[in-house]
């Protein structure tokens, strides 16, 4: 090892040199979230006092300043991962995108250019965010583009519990939308990876896609009707398929998602037999131990890195 | 912890550091491999995903097995408590075996048995004290709190559980609430714990897991000190009023300090922590100081109405961004891109996990409300529409 590197490592080990990189990132991210929260409140509470046009122009100007800063610091475009020189780049970009989106929503709410088709502004926001994310190589903006697209189709990917609650009270159309969004995200991820076009974005699309599909399918599970049985079998098939694929591809987080989904489906099938409490307890004891044994066997083959 | 397990943990820390250096590009693959050979691993470990699954299903198996026995045997209350005691002790013995003879480490199972053991033992003791021995308050509650504290402290001491250390410290705070002079005892306990935990968190004589445990104790002790000296807790008399029925009358503190003292400590503790952290280059203290600073600013906003909430949020957000940008620039312009031993450069190679967390937070916090398919029509001014975090309920 060169002396300079050894000296640097030794300084780090002795805490003679400490990085504030994480703290600065957290501060920037918290700043963005606080600022956009404040803008959200401004839009909600101060329309009458400041006037919709003033607010729209002010937020638009703030977004423009952010984009100007981003344009000045943006790295050259590449389809691969592009290292960013400035620590704040991702956060100022996120701030600009959120402010612009808020401004668009405000304009839509106040001046209703889309009329009854107001939800389409979510699609517009999503379609604008996606190329910005690709140009600026921002995974955060890309994930927002996907979740905003899902929101346009009525699928809240922001909170799984909320999603489940919504599924329980919404028509089947919502479930179909979620599955559709999930499949679309999986396709997007697939083509990004195959075409080597921002291939490092693929995990974002794939994880969101699988979660949307599995949550939609699980929400249809039950212990009584034939339709519920179909959903249970679909979860079992999807979960098992995902587990096998993820094990082959050594994608361990996907493996866990598929594994848990398959286990939930198996338990769902068992509960259709209307077992007694004692049998239920015995089922979970035996299957948990079986799962543990199979996890250790799988790990011997897959060797997940530490 | 056995000496073999301690050696394995120290070796693991060296290998982790080597992997970090490799990711940063400070060493090459040959150097990393040489380090791994020099500090070999004799433990059976699982990767993070398998470990979490193993933990989850071990807990599931233990709880289900206990429920099965309860349903089959249908024991009396006292017998159930004794069964839980036996199970807890058996789980702790199993932990010893898993970590000792079977050489498991970071495998999920051994953490689950240690945790479940502590919870079953604590639950059984609570049940025995309250329902079988019928020891009345305050002695009963104190006994339960003390037993929980001791059990969690044991998991920290024996198996290096950081969460166990944190829960034991939290338990100590709760236990002190069950006695008179709570504010005073909190302050004294924190002042005793802070220097000890600080030394422990940096002591090379302690193995990494015990250092992490000390860091957890340090963080909670500082938070406890801040709460005891906080103007809001003084005004609300939250430590004097007591939380349980038997405390209501007798808990008045003899502390007759002026209110201004608590105003001062609310402002000064975060600042003192920050200054100390910056001078001594301690990131943990920096993080705690920043968190307590935010708490003090929120307190200020609670007591003094400076401006409407949206102005405060926008100003705080803009201020935070400007401060971070300014600090980054100041550090970058220093000689060798550092000042006083601080740098804005990343010294850790892998930021993938941090970026995943950022993306997850953005999805949770900034995604607009979903447009429900059955939504009949647009209602102007309802604030339900929104893009990229723009909805009114964002």
Major β-sheet strand ordering of chain B:
1-2
Into which percentage range does the β-strand content of chain A fall?
under 5%
Q: What integer is the average pLDDT of chain B?
A: 86
Q: Could you say which overall geometry of chain A the principal axes of the C-alpha atoms support?
A: globular
Q: Note the quaternary state here.
A: heterodimer
Largest sheet of chain A: none
Overall pLDDT confidence of chain A = 88
- Total number of strands of chain A: 1
Major β-sheet profile of chain B:
2 strands, antiparallel
Q: Ends of chain B: how far apart?
A: 49 Å
- Rg value of chain B: 26 Å
Helix content of chain B: over 70%
Biggest chain contact = A-B, 116 and 96 residues
The helix count of chain B comes to 15
Structural domain tally of chain B? 2
Radius of gyration of chain A: 24 Å
What would you note in describing this structure?
The complex is a heterodimer of chains A (306) and B (394). Chain A has 306 residues and is mainly alpha-helical. Chain A has a domain of 128 residues. In chain A, 77% of the residues lie in helices and 1% in strands. In chain A, helix 2 packs parallel to helix 5 and helix 4 runs antiparallel to helix 5. The longest helix of chain A is centred in the last third of the chain and has 26 residues. In chain A, 45% of the residues are buried. In chain B, 70% of the residues lie in helices and 1% in strands. Chain B is an all-alpha fold and 394 residues long. Chain B folds into two domains: 307 residues, no CATH class; 30 residues. The two termini of chain B are 49 Å apart. In chain B, a hairpin with a 2-residue loop joins strand 1 and strand 2. A two-stranded antiparallel sheet of chain B has the order 1-2. Chains A and B meet through helix 1, strand 1, helix 2, helix 5 and helix 6 of A and helix 1, helix 3, helix 13, helix 14 and strand 2 of B.
In short:
The complex is a heterodimer of chains A (306) and B (394). With 306 residues, chain A is an all-alpha fold. Chain A has a domain at 1-128.
């Amino acid at each position: 090892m060169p002396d300079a590197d050894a000296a640097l490592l030794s300084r780090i080990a002795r805490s003679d040199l400490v990085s504030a990189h994480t703290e600065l990132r957290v501060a920037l991210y918290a700043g963005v979230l606080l600022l956009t929260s404040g803008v959200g409140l401004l839009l909600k509470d101060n329309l009458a006092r400041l006037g919709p046009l003033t607010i729209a122009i002010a937020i638009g100007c703030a977004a423009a300043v952010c984009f100007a800063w981003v344009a000045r610091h943006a790295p050259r475009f590449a389809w691969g991962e592009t290292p960013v020189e400035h620590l704040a780049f991702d956060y100022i970009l996120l701030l600009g995108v959120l402010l612009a989106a808020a401004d668009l929503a405000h304009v839509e709410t106040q001046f209703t250019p889309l009329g009854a088709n107001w939800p389409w502004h979510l699609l517009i926001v999503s379609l604008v965010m996606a190329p910005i994310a690709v140009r600026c190589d921002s995974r955060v903006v890309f994930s927002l583009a996907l979740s905003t697209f899902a929101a346009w189709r009525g699928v809240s990917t922001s909170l799984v519990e909320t999603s489940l609650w919504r599924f329980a009270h919404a028509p089947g159309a919502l479930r179909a939308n979620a599955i559709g969004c999930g499949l679309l995200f999986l396709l997007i991820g697939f083509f990004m990876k195959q075409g080597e076009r921002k291939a490092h974005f693929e995990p974002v699309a794939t994880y969101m896609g699988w979660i949307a599909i599995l949550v939609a399918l699980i929400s249809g599970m039950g212990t009584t009707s034939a339709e519920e049985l179909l959903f249970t079998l679909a979860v079992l098939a999807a979960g098992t398929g995902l587990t096998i694929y993820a094990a082959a591809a050594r994608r361990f987080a996907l493996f866990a998602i598929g594994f848990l989904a398959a286990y939930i489906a198996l338990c769902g099938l068992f509960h259709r037999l209307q077992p007694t409490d004692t049998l239920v307890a015995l089922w979970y004891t035996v299957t948990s131990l079986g799962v543990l044994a199979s996890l250790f066997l799988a790990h011997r083959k897959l060797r997940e890195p530490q | 912890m056995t000496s073999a397990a301690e050696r394995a943990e120290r070796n693991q820390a060296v290998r982790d550091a080597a992997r970090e250096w490799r990711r940063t590009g400070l060493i090459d693959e040959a150097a990393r491999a040489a380090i791994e050979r020099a500090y070999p691993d004799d433990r059976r470990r699982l990767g993070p995903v398998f470990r979490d699954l193993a933990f989850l299903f071990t807990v599931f198996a233990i709880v289900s097995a206990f429920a099965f026995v309860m349903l089959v045997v249908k024991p009396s209350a006292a017998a159930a408590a004794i069964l839980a005691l036996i199970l807890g002790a058996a789980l702790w013995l199993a932990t010893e075996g898993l970590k000792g003879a079977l050489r498991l480490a970071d495998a999920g199972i051994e953490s689950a048995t240690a945790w479940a053991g502590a919870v079953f033992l604590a639950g059984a003791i609570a049940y025995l004290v309250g329902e079988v021995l019928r020891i009345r308050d305050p002695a009963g509650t104190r006994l339960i709190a003390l037993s929980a504290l001791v059990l969690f402290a044991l998991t920290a001491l024996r198996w290096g559980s950081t969460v166990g250390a944190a829960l034991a410290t939290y338990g100590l705070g709760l236990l002190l609430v069950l006695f008179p002079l709570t504010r005073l005892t909190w302050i004294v306990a924190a002042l005793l714990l802070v220097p000890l935990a600080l030394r422990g968190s940096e002591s090379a004589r302690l193995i990494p897991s015990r250092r992490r445990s000390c860091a957890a104790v340090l963080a909670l002790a500082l938070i406890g000190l801040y709460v005891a000296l906080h103007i809001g807790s003084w005004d609300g008399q939250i430590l004097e009023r007591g939380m349980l029925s038997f405390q209501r009358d007798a808990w008045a503190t003899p502390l007759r300090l002026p209110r201004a003292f608590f105003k001062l400590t609310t402002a000064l503790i975060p600042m003192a922590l920050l200054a100390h952290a910056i001078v001594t280059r301690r990131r943990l203290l920096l993080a705690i100081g920043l968190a307590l600073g935010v708490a003090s600013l929120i307190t200020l906003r609670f007591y003094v109405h400076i401006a409407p909430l949206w102005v405060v949020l926008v100003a705080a957000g803009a201020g935070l961004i400007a401060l971070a940008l300014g600090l980054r620039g100041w550090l970058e312009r220093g000689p060798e891109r550092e000042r006083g031993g601080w740098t804005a450069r990343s010294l850790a190679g892998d930021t993938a996990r941090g970026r995943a967390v950022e993306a997850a937070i953005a999805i949770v916090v900034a995604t607009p409300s979903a447009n429900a398919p059955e939504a009949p029509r647009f209602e102007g001014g309802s604030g339900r529409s929104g893009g990229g975090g723009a909805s009114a309920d964002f």
